[in-house]
Write a structure and sequence with these properties.
With about 100 residues, the chain is of the alpha+beta class. About 20% of the residues lie in helices and about 35% in strands. The chain is globular.
Length: about 100
């Protein structure tokens, strides 16, 4: 999975851009694979009042061992296709975004 995540990542001079596809309203937060060149994430929060977007950035930050302010939504505020910017002094361990069982 690490190689798959690394293939979809892009550096932008300020950090890493991670394209994601989000399914809000899931039973629990989890990574579930790669779909159409995007990391598929299931987020338990509903897509109401920005709750899913807030939960998304918090979940990714937690998985990577980063602070919440190090993960920002930079594209796709509305809709399932989104792009996150991840800013850290050292490159995060992308293996931590591997789906369970992979």
């Amino acid at each position: 999975m690490t190689k798959a995540v690394e293939r979809i990542l892009r550096g932008d001079g300020q950090g890493w851009l991670l394209p994601v596809w989000v399914q809000p309203g899931a039973k629990r937060d989890q990574v579930s694979g790669i779909v159409d060149g995007r990391l598929k994430l299931r987020i338990a929060a509903p897509a109401v009042d920005n709750k899913a977007n807030t939960a998304l950035t918090a979940y990714v930050a937690g998985q990577l061992g980063l602070r919440r302010n190090q993960v920002a939504l930079v594209a796709g505020t509305i809709g399932r296709k989104k792009t996150l910017r991840i800013v850290a002094e050292q490159e995060p361990d992308w293996e931590r975004l591997a789906p369970a069982g992979m």
